[in-house]
Amino acid sequence: MGYVISTVNMKGGVGKTTITVNLATCLAKYHNKRVLVIDLDTQVNATLSLMPPLALARLKKEKRTLKTLVNQAIQPDYYSEITIQDIIQRNICNIKGLDLLPGDIELYNDFYLAAVVYATSQETKISFEESWTQLENSLVRRIIAPIVEAYDFILLDFAPGDQLLTRSGILASNFYLIPAKPEPLSVIGIGILQGRIKKLKSSDRSRIDLLGIIFTSLGHASNMAEQVKNRLSEEFGADKLFEIEIPVNVAVAKAVDEYKPVVLNDPHASGAKGLANFTKEFLEKISLLAAGK
Question: What is the DSSP code string of 154-205?
Answer without folding.
Answer: EEEE--SS--HHHHHHHHT-SEEEEEE-SSHHHHHHHHHHHHHHHHHHHTTS
